[in-house]
Each structure stands twice: as structure tokens, then as C-alpha cells.
Amino acid sequence: MAVNSFDGIREFVTSAQTLSFTAAALELGVTSSAVGKSVTRLEARLGVKLLHRTTRRLILTSEGEAFLASCLRAIDELAESESFLTTGQQEPVGRLRVDLPAAFGRRHILPTLIKLAVRYQKLDLSISFTERLVDILNEGVDLVVRIGTLKDDGDLVARKLGSQKLLICATPDYLQRHGIPQNREDLLRHDCIVGWRNGTRKTWMLLDEKGQVYEQEVCVKHEMGDGEMLLEMVLAGGGLAQLPTWLVQDFIEDGTLVSVLEQYEGAEMPIHVIWPRTRYIQPKVRMIIDELIALAQRDAKIFRPDVVFESPEEG
User: Which residues contact 250 (CB under 8 A, 6 or more apart)?
Assistant: First the structure.
């Protein structure tokens, strides 16, 4: 008897999403034992364990998580193809997982994604906020926005949206109590507030006399998980911090914060949108990329775009 490559897929996906054979059975209109047997046969065919069974619930294995992500992408592609055939338009369909940098993502990317989700009713969003570069392929992420220099990776495609300029600032009260730093060596004596980065040197990006970027060691007083937390600590008078202009410019202009060491400022960090390399970019992914490119062009004060953008090509 020929084996159908799709046997057990529906049962596995439903079980993985509900974490219960019983709940999956109710949704599929079959018995829980039938669902369990279908998943067991699928595991035997693949030669891997997809789900750990306990008396209370199901738990995805690491292989199960990766396979579920692949199954969901395939299901979404089929749904998009069906939508195109029935409507003649490639409307974004299915779930899209997006990971964003915390402060920047909430302030400047999330509003655009919310508008798109409201406009396209068949688009389902899963949005997370982290400062680390997630493992897109293994974690099933469709699209990420990241700030900072990227490593070369042949499995990923990146498009630069713009860059953010960095400056060092503190409250007038802090500077009155501790003095105004005059040179970069003073950063080894002041209370400096930095972003939390596990196992890395605590440095700030400064410009030298030739306009070249270099990393300056600083004396770390506080470590914060994201830009909003950094800003709160600086505003409270907790020390010096190096922050992007989009986050602190209003406070600089009204005098709440004071920019220091201006002779060294001007370093910039690139902002990229990143996605897995593939021969076919799903309509929902392409649509989000195009919207982010348009956003960067519209909001030049925030993104400081310095490149001519093109719509993404297939990987």
C-alpha cells in the first residue's frame, strides 16, 4: 500500500497547537485514539519523536517544533494559493511570526503591523520583542527587524531600512553631582548605563578624530534589558547612557537631558529587516517588507535612510 506523504500531518498540527489528542480529536471530529495513532505512524515514517506524551498534556520536542513550523508555512502557502485562485489577488493569508527590537519595535514598527492586521483579516500575527538576533530558521520566525551590524549568513536575506545615530547623555542633576566628562577616558570613571549583553565587552561606539568608529570601554554601573529601561534610568539621574536620537531627542531639546562628549558622537547603527532565503517569498512576507521599506522612506527622521530601496527579490 502506497504511503501518502501527507498522512498524519493534519492530526499532528492540530495536536501540536492544542497540546492534547483529546482536543485535537474534538476539532477534527474523530476519536482521540485515532489522532494518537496517526501521529505515531507519522513519527515512525519520519524516524523522529515529534511529541512527548504525558498524562496531562503533550509537549513538542525540538524536532517537533521545527516540523510544526514547516507544516504551518506549507499550510499558509496553500491557503494563499487558494485565495489567489478564488479572488485573483495575492492577499496575505495565514500566520506570520515577526520578531522586533523592544523599544524601537514598539514605537516605530508595531503601529504599522497593527494597521496591516486590521486591513487584512486573513492575516494572523505573532509578534515578539527581543534584543538578540533570533535563530530564524530553527525558531520558525518569518521576519525580524534588527539594529546593529549583521554577520554574513547565506541562509538569510537582509535589506537595510536606515540607521540610527547615537549620542551620550545624562540629566543636568547627574552632571552637577559627578561633573561633565571631557574626554573618552572619563567614561572609565563615570557611572555608565549599558544594554544587557551576556558575555560581551561593555563598550560604546565613538568616532575618532578621523571619523572612524571604534569601541570604547566604559565603567558599567547599571545594565538594562532594552532601550526604554535605559531611558528610564538615565531620566532618573542614574548615570550616562549612549542612546539613539529617536529615543532622546525630545528630552535633549527641552533640557531634561544634556548631550556630552559631542566631539566623539556621530556613530550610527544600521537597521535591517531580515528573512530566510528562499526561491519564493510568500505574499504576506513580501507585503510586510514593502510596507517597512515605505515606512522608512516616509519617516526619515527616525530611520535616517541613506539607500535607494527596491522591492525584495526572491532569494
Answer: none
